[in-house]
Amino acid sequence: MANLYALGVGEVDTDFQRVLIDRETLQRRIAEMGAQISHDYQGKTIVLVGILKGAVMFLADLARQITVPSEFDFMAVSSYGQSSVSTGVVRIIKDLDHTIEGKDVLVVEDIIDTGLTLAYLREVLLARRPNSLRVCCLLDKPGRRKVAVPVDYRGFEIPDEFVVGYGLDYREMYRNLGEIYVLSPHVYKT
Ligand code: IMP
Ligand code: MG
After folding, report:
1. Does domain 24-160 bear CATH number 3.40.50.2020?
2. In what order do the strands lie in the sheet with 46-52?
3. Which atom of ligand 1 is nearest to the CA of 168?
4. Ligand 1 in reach of 162 Cβ (< 6 A)
5. 50 lines ligand 1 (CB under 6 A)
């Protein structure tokens, strides 16, 4: 395994094919998203619902770009079956701490792939009667979609490649990286 802590942007490392989105590009886009969200939620208080663990970095940076009052809450979900294949059967590992009834909820997700996780989450959250429910994702792989899910705020559309970093993991690794990388296929073949 490569020494991740010695890794800098632009350096060649065998675990990664390439940097897909660098720090500056990420932060610039997140600032734009925060400004748009602040504009859209004028006069309201947003409940930011981060989906653990992948959305942690994104939520932390996005929240600091939001100028309307906000609360944080978190959910952790896990899909049954193989780790790399989404089945659509989702298990809630950690539920929200607070009720969202009558609240303006913004789900903050790291990446939408098949859309199955988000489709399930939307159903669960809508049944709790929030005043509004919107979805914000950093990354979107539209080419992999199995179910249509409405996405209100989208950071970047990316190609169908497995990415890590900035909260995203492969077997819990690489979340701490400050950029988004394309993982080399040899890593998940070992
Ligand atoms: P979906 O249900 O297929 O949309 O799966 C979404 C979840 O799968 C995300 O929240 C991620 O945890 C994970 N995921 C999907 N694609 C990637 C990827 O390229 N890298 C890391 N995790 C991913
Ligand atoms: Mg994961």
Report:
1. yes
2. 90-94, 70-79, 46-52, 104-112, 132-140, 153-157
3. 21
4. yes
5. no
